Amino acid sequence: MIMTTFDIGYFKAVIEEMAAMIEVERDYLTSLDSSIGDGDHGINLSIGFRDVSKQLEQFDTAAENISTLFKKVGMSLLGKVGGASGPLYGSFFLKMGVAAQNKQAVSFAEFVEMYRAGVTAVQNRGKAELGDKTMIDAMLPAMDYLTQHQEADDVAAIMQEALVVMKQGAESTDNIVAKKGRALRLGERAIGHRDPGAESSWKLFECFVKKLG
Ligand SMILES: [Mg+2]
Question: What pLDDT is stored for residue 84 in this prediction?
């Protein structure tokens, strides 16, 4: 059996990949938010992840651990990102960090536990249910998929499949009205537009997949 460990170096590389991805996708994410929100999602995440990148310049993986890494990311996003997504993504990373229990490396099942803690934090903050046209529509199906397969050996395949599930969840927001967030006011006019948070959440998850093995 091949044991995949998710260590501090892996997670630091994932966060750097996230920061780079947000720069590339900034205008696209903002354009999604322009259609049904206030047009700042990509810009806000870019401001947040630029601060994250700055924090990581001083980050010593030998002296730190996964919890302190994710806490730094969460605090940056909480402090710098405006709109609804700052508190949501900030809580997501903070709670993933708490669940890592100051370890330098975690198993796949422990990673899934971290992810579950992050998604639960988003749910607790945003109070969104499945089908409300929010990032939960992407995160929750992936969380369930990962939980069902957390003891599997082929971690890379499970992660790839969880990503597919997330993308499908994001696509499902195209054809529903919003029950949370700014798009709520649009009613039926929100139909035909993807939720920006659902889209950014699978793109962030893709960074975990990309940096595997
Ligand atoms: Mg916005």
Answer: 86
The Å distance, Cα 83 to ligand 1 centre, comes to 5
CA 170 to ligand 1 centroid distance, Å: 17
Compute the distance from residue 13 Cα to the ligand 1 centre, in Å: 27
What is the residue range of 125's domain?
6-210
**How far apart, in whole angstroms, are the C-alpha atoms of residue 1 and residue 131?**
38
Domain count within the chain? 1
Q: Is residue 155 part of a domain?
A: yes
Amino acid symbol at 90: G
| pLDDT at 1 (0 to 100) | 43
Q: What is the CATH number of the domain that holds 92?
A: 1.25.40.340
pLDDT tens per residue across span 15-25: 999 999 999 99
Spatial separation of the C-alpha atoms in residues 41 and 60, rounded to whole Å: 30
**DSSP run (H or E) holding 141:** helix 136-148
pLDDT tens, residue by residue, 99-127? 999 999 999 999 999 999 999 999 999 99
Domain annotation covers residue 1: no
